[in-house]
């Protein structure tokens, strides 16, 4: 049984933007809550998602998003080693457009042995365990 998952930016953003192509994240979040799976959000992902909401959906939505994350999310700070391994990961996959946000999330996933809640195929390329609603 999975105890926790690590959230990527794509499903978090989709929870805020009802016009997003991945709006199915809402039903997945309900499933995650029903299964009592803890959602962990790395600080870099929270920052990236906040920026997307701010620039795409404007200030009020961004501030609401930030407050919800602050009040209800389990935020995690990457370690120095996570950042070091992330740099190695983007070098390893230099032919791919893997962001440092994703590389750090991947290293946290590997360290904690928790799957990532994402729709980004780069995690599959990096052989990272993915949480999928079955």
TrEMBL record:
Top-rank taxon of the source lineage equals: Bacteria
- Taking the record's annotation, the residue ranges forming a coiled coil are none
Q: Where are the transmembrane segments?
A: none
| Domain PIN per the UniProt entry, residue ranges | 6-125
Instruction: Return the protein name.
Output: PIN domain-containing protein
Organism annotation = Cyanobacterium aponinum 0216
């Amino acid at each position: 049984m999975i105890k926790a998952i690590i959230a990527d930016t794509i499903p978090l953003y989709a929870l805020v933007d009802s016009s997003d192509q991945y709006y199915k994240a809402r039903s997945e979040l309900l499933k995650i809550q029903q299964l009592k799976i803890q959602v962990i959000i790395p600080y870099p992902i929270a920052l990236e998602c906040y920026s997307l909401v701010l620039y795409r959906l404007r200030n009020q939505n961004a501030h609401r998003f930030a407050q919800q994350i602050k009040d209800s999310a389990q935020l995690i700070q990457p370690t120095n080693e996570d950042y070091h391994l992330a740099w190695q990961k983007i070098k390893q996959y230099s032919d791919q457009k893997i962001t440092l946000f994703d590389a750090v999330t991947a290293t946290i996933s590997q360290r904690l042995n928790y799957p990532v809640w994402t729709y980004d195929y780069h995690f599959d390329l990096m052989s990272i365990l993915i949480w999928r609603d079955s």
